[in-house]
Each structure stands twice: as structure tokens, then as C-alpha cells.
């Protein structure tokens, strides 16, 4: 069973809305808010130096430009001040990343690959000696970092990497061999976090392969790079393959302990995904501004575009979805800063929702700008190209949906397994059986209740209460129907993930708007209340649709169509 330490989203799978986590909506301290505002001002002043279109066409940032960025202090945002960084919290870090992304996606990715993931394992798992050695260079930008996990045969399936490190006979160093691909900052990084297989005791007298994380200093004999990748977007960021041939790594460069690398990679990505979500949020902010400037000034049929209902709808939906994304992201960074909750699902959800929102928002902005949006000089097509990768890297959104569903279902799954055992041994399991019975009575008869939402949002809170109860019951039903093979039922997992995403988004919007009403007074919150109502209206439709299609769907037909098409190898129909 989940404990109080478990995450908000994992509790939803049990039919619990953890208001202790949700309320009050997290706020940044006044001191930090001041530092963040100063950084944002600095970034804003730097804006004219960023020749985004030029860098995109050149496929590179000039070296002196990266130097200027480092001088702004943007390389060590979350590194403690004692090591030369700015010591920002997760909330502060993500807010600044958001701002950088309003200027240029490739720049945000370069900086994000450096600190969101490049040296994040050092921050989370490094020893004091390692931090002392590397932090100052990383903070000043003299040392750029990258994160080397992906390989030719291992993308989403991160556990299947082949790169190998073998400890020397005298135990002083490892020898590293393998190939990493699509590494952002690859060829410019002097600090490479490399994940490699090492042989570890299996606990039964034998050995087995596990993953270990290493700091690899570059350049070094045996490290070579592929050519810069010719990418669709974020073209000015550098992406290369890195080859390791008999590269010597000092034994003290192991990060977080031998064999711990898989969990380390996952923890780094839990953080990185929030940086990416924050970056995507900045993209939304920029696109909304561009769309509004155009809608306010461009006249057609004698009126500015902002007079037309279809344009109003687009702008409003962009604003509402961006508000929902922002509410989730800063709820989750608040959880990280609290430090006592698991946030793996929340960060995956923030990544999925915000990257998909930016994809939609940039596409709609291009549509509002019409022919002008399609022209390279206006910069919107660059954002559309730049943001496409966000749905793929740091965990493809499909893989993250599976992670959200399966990780969430684990709690009720264990509970049901315990119930099955308890039924076989009723005397031993009596306590558990009565707990489950009580939970099901609560879900079926009493329902879930929220007490802390502002009364003006009572109707919305009611919708969420009903859905969370139904969600837990539907999860139980699916687990009873499929057992462990739920992991192979991707159509069902996708629905569960999509419902979880909406329930988390609805919860964060409720918490944030409740807090805003409480601080500002209801009469000054007309717009926020309208956003909450509007978000709930659309999310409500999606959730209801997903619940319905758990039992009534076209999954079998889709499987048949896909199987036949794949067997044939092409579309298969023609009218002539
Ligand atoms: S870097 C490369 C990104 N790669 C990925 O994201 C890989 C995706 N794959 C995975 O995440 C895993 O392989 C999955 C699990 C999830 C598929 N937190 O049996 P398992 C635990 C904590 O499910 P698998 C890039 O693209 C799990 O509970 N724990 O494993 C950067 C279990 O634990 P236990 C987790 O089936 C590009 C154990 O692990 C998590 O093999 C540059 C095994 O789990 C988790 N999340 O696969 C980007 N997941 O054994 C720059 C699993 O105890 C960005 N576990 O039960 C910069 C941004 C800046 C802004 C830009 C703006 C435009």
C-alpha cells in the first residue's frame, strides 16, 4: 500500500486526493524570487544578442556567444553559491530555463543538456570530493557537461546499453569501450556522464551485468566524435556520437556507487524532464505573444483578427493549456524543493503535457499567422521545428505514458496480489481484507472528498472527486481483468496514462486558482476562474471519453488494421 511519502499521482491510483501535498499551492521565497527576477532581467537584456535565425541557418553558435552566455551566470544556475553557482532551487532553475526558451530553443537545449542532465548525477549522487573538483568549472562554463546514455541499439530501452567498463587488475581505473549517439553537447563537453555495464556480484556467488555511472573527462586518448548531426530543429545545438575505445577512467570517477547506474539515470531524467517541461513552457509563452501581436494588428475583412471567434478560441485555448502546464510544472518543482515526496510520475506528466501543449500552441500560432507564419523570416516555423524533438527526447512520450500507467498501477496491483494471498490464508489476511473492503466501500458509497478547494470552484472539485473515485475502481477492474499482462496492454495503458495526466492537471489548476483567489480576492480573479472552468470543461470531455473506451473501443479493429498494413508493407488502397 502507498504511504504518506508517496506521490500525489500514485495516490490517485488508490482513489486518494492528497490535499496535504496539493494545498497550499507552492510559492517561491521572496529572496529567491528577487534573484530569479534579476536573472530574468539579465536574460531579457541579452535578447538582442541572440541571432536565432542566423544561428539556425549556420547550424552552430559562435564560440564567443557561448562565452557571453557563461558570463551571464547561466551555466551554474543550481550549483551552490559556495562553488560559484547561483544556488537556485528547482523552482528557480526551471523558471529561468523557461525564460531562456522564450529566446531560443537551441540555446535552452544546450544549457539544459549541460545542467538539467549533463552534471545532474554529480549534484544528486556525487561525493563532496567530486563536487569540489568539478563544480567551479561547470558553474563558470569553462567545463561543459553532457549526458551519455543513448546508444545505437538502446534508446527508450535504457537498460539494454552495451557500453562496458572493466576494472583494471590493480583496481585503480576502468577501461571503457562503446558508442553513444545523439549526445547534445557531445563534442564540446569536458565532463561526460557515461552509463556503462559493469560486472557485479549477483548475490549467489556469481556475477551479472549492472549499469554504473561514470564521470569521463574529455578530451582523452580513445575518445572520438562523429560529425555534427544535421537536424530538423534546435540546429545550433551540437549533437554528435561519442566513441570510447579503451578509455581510461580513474576508479574514483564512479558516480553514486557501482551497479547503481540505472536508478541514477532515471533520477537524473526525473529532474531533466522538468527542465524540458519548463523550456517548453517558455516556448508557449513566446508563441502566445507572437500570435497575439499578429491577431491584434493584422486586419482582414475590415477587422483585426482578434475579432474573429475562431481566432479567439485558438488564443484562449493556448492560454488555458499553458496555464495548466505551468500549474503542473511549478507544483512539481515545489515537490522537489520540499524534498519529501516521490515526483517521478509528476515530472513525466509535466514533460508529456507541456511538450504536447507547445507542439499544439506553435502549430496554432503558425496557423494564426497564416502565410506569414510559413515564411522563415518570422521565426515561427523555426519554433515548430525546434520543439518537435521535445516529444521524443528525455523519454519518448509513448514510453513515458507507459511509465505513468505501469508505475501508478503498481500500488493497487500489489494490493490485489496481497488480497489474493489473503483469500488463501484468510486468518492471516483478515486485517488487509477489511482494509480493502473499507476502501471499496469508501470509493463506491461514500466517495472521495476535497475540503481545501475554494468554494467558488466547488463544482470543479466535485468533478475531480467523482473522477478520482471512478479512476481507482477502473484501475482495479483492469488489473483484475489482465493481471500482470496489463504491461502488454498498451491501448489500455495509454488510457490510464491520459486520465492520470488530466487528473493531475485538474488538481494543480484547482490548487493554484484556489490560492490565487485566497490571496487576491474573488472579485479580482475573473480570468483565473474562467480558465479553471474552461480547462475542466475540456479535460472533463477527455476523461469521460477515456473511461468509456476502457470497455467500448475499437482496439481489436485497430490491431487488425495495423497488423495487415505492416504485413503488406504499404497503405494498400487506390481508386484507379
Ligand atoms: S537523454 C536519453 C533519454 N532516455 C530516456 O529517457 C530513456 C527512456 N527510458 C526509460 O526511462 C526507462 O528505460 C523505462 C523503464 C521507464 C522505459 N524514476 O523494469 P523497469 C525504476 C525512478 O520499468 P525498464 C536525452 O534524450 C523502476 O521503478 N525509478 O525498467 C537528452 C524499477 O525499480 P525497482 C524509476 O523496463 C537529450 C527499475 O527502475 C524510473 O528497463 C537532451 C526498473 O524499472 C523513474 N523515472 O525501463 C535534452 N523509471 O526495480 C536536453 C524506472 O526498484 C534538454 N524506475 O522496482 C534540455 C531541456 C531544456 C529546455 C528545452 C526547451 C525547448
What are the key terms here?
4 domains; 20 helices; Butyryl-CoA Dehydrogenase, subunit A, domain 3; globular; four-stranded mixed beta sheet; 11% strand; Butyryl-CoA Dehydrogenase, subunit A, domain 2; 10 strands; 58% helix; alpha+beta; Butyryl-Coa Dehydrogenase, subunit A, domain 1; 576 residues; binds tetradecanoyl-COA
Overview of the structural elements:
There is one protein chain. By secondary structure, the protein is α+β, with helices and mostly antiparallel strands. It has 4 domains: 8-140, Acyl-CoA dehydrogenase/oxidase, N-terminal domain (Butyryl-Coa Dehydrogenase, subunit A, domain 1); 145-258, Butyryl-CoA Dehydrogenase, subunit A, domain 2 (Beta Barrel), CATH 2.40.110.10; 264-398, Up-down Bundle (Butyryl-CoA Dehydrogenase, subunit A, domain 3); 427-564, Butyryl-CoA Dehydrogenase, subunit A, domain 3 (Up-down Bundle). 58% of the residues lie in helices and 11% in strands. It contains 20 helices and 10 strands. Strands 1-4-5-8 form a 4-stranded mixed β-sheet. Strands 2-3-7-6 form a 4-stranded antiparallel β-sheet, covered by helices on one side. A two-stranded antiparallel sheet has the order 9-10. A hairpin with a 5-residue loop joins strand 2 (164-167) and strand 3. Helix 12 packs antiparallel against helix 15 (397-424), helix 15 (397-424) packs across helix 18 and helix 18 runs antiparallel to helix 19 (526-551). It is globular, with a radius of gyration of 25 Å. The mean pLDDT is 95. The structure holds tetradecanoyl-COA. Residues 97, 101, 105, 108-109, 112-113, 116-117, 147, 149-150, 156-159, 184, 262-263, 266, 269-270, 275-276, 279-280, 283, 344, 390, 393-395, 399, 403 line the site of tetradecanoyl-COA.
Amino acid at each position: 500500500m502507498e504511504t504518506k511519502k508517496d506521490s500525489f499521482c500514485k495516490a490517485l491510483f488508490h482513489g486518494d486526493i492528497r490535499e496535504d501535498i496539493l494545498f497550499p499551492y507552492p510559492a517561491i521565497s521572496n529572496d529567491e524570487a528577487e534573484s530569479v527576477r534579476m536573472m530574468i532581467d539579465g536574460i531579457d537584456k541579452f535578447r538582442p544578442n541572440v541571432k536565432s535565425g542566423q544561428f539556425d541557418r549556420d547550424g552552430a553558435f559562435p564560440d564567443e556567444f557561448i562565452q557571453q552566455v557563461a558570463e551571464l551566470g547561466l551555466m551554474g544556475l543550481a550549483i551552490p553559491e559556495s562553488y560559484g553557482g547561483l544556488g537556485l532551487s528547482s523552482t528557480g532553475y526551471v523558471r529561468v530555463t523557461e525564460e531562456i526558451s522564450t529566446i531560443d530553443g537551441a540555446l535552452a537545449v544546450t544549457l539544459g543538456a549541460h545542467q538539467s542532465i549533463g552534471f545532474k548525477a554529480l549534484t544528486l549522487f556525487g561525493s563532496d570530493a567530486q563536487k569540489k573538483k568539478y563544480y567551479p568549472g561547470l558553474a563558470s562554463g569553462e567545463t561543459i557537461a553532457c549526458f551519455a546514455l543513448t546508444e545505437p541499439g538502446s534508446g527508450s530501452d535504457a537498460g539494454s546499453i552495451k557500453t562496458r567498463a572493466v576494472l583494471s587488475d590493480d583496481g585503480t581505473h576502468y577501461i571503457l569501450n562503446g558508442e553513444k549517439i545523439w549526445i547534445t553537447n557531445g563534442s564540446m563537453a569536458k565532463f561526460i556522464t557515461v552509463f556503462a555495464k559493469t560486472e557485479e556480484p549477483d548475490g549467489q556467488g556469481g556475477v551479472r551485468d549492472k549499469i554504473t555511472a561514470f564521470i569521463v573527462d574529455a578530451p582523452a586518448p580513445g575518445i572520438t566524435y562523429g560529425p555534427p548531426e544535421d537536424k530538423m530543429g534546435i540546429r545550433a545545438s551540437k549533437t554528435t556520437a561519442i566513441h570510447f575505445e579503451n578509455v581510461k577512467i580513474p576508479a574514483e570517477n564512479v558516480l553514486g556507487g557501482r551497479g547503481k547506474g540505472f536508478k541514477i539515470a532515471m533520477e537524473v531524467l526525473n529532474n531533466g524532464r522538468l527542465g524540458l517541461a519548463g523550456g517548453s513552457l517558455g516556448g508557449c509563452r513566446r508563441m502566445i505573444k507572437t500570435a497575439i501581436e499578429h491577431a491584434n494588428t493584422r486586419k482582414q475583412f475590415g477587422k483585426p483578427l482578434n475579432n474573429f471567434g475562431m481566432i479567439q478560441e485558438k488564443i484562449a485555448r493556448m492560454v488555458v493549456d499553458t496555464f495548466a502546464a505551468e500549474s503542473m510544472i511549478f507544483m512539481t518543482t515545489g515537490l522537489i524543493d520540499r524534498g519529501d515526496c516521490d515526483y517521478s510520475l509528476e515530472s513525466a506528466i509535466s514533460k508529456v503535457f507541456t511538450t504536447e501543449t507547445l507542439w499544439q500552441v506553435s502549430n496554432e500560432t503558425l496557423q494564426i499567422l497564416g502565410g506569414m507564419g510559413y515564411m522563415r523570416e518570422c521565426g515561427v516555423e523555426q519554433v515548430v521545428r525546434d520543439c518537435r524533438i521535445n516529444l521524443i527526447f528525455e523519454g519518448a512520450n509513448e514510453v513515458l505514458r507507459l511509465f505513468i500507467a505501469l508505475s501508478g498501477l503498481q500500488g493497487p496491483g500489489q494490493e490485489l496480489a496481497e488480497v489474493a494471498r489473503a483469500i488463501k490464508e484468510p486468518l492471516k489476511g483478515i486485517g488487509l481484507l477489511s482494509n480493502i473492503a473499507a476502501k471499496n466501500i469508501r470509493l463506491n458509497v461514500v466517495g472521495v472528498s476535497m475540503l481545501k478547494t475554494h468554494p467558488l470552484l466547488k463544482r470543479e472539485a466535485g468533478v475531480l472527486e467523482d473522477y478520482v473515485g471512478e479512476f481507482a475502481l477502473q484501475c482495479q477492474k483492469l488489473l483484475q481483468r489482465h493481471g500482470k499482462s496489463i504491461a502488454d496492454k498498451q491501448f489500455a495503458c495509454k488510457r490510464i496514462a491520459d486520465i492520470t495526466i488530466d487528473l493531475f492537471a485538474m488538481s494543480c489548476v484547482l490548487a493554484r486558482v484556489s490560492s490565487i483567489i485566497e490571496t487576491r480576492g474573488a472579485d479580482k480573479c475573473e480570468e483565473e476562474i474562467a480558465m479553471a472552468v474552461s480547462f475542466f470543461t475540456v479535460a472533463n470531455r477527455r476523461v469521460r471519453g477515456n473511461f468509456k473506451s476502457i470497455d467500448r473501443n475499437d482496439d481489436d479493429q485497430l490491431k487488425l488494421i495495423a497488423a495487415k498494413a505492416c504485413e503488406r508493407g504499404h497503405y494498400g488502397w487506390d481508386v484507379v
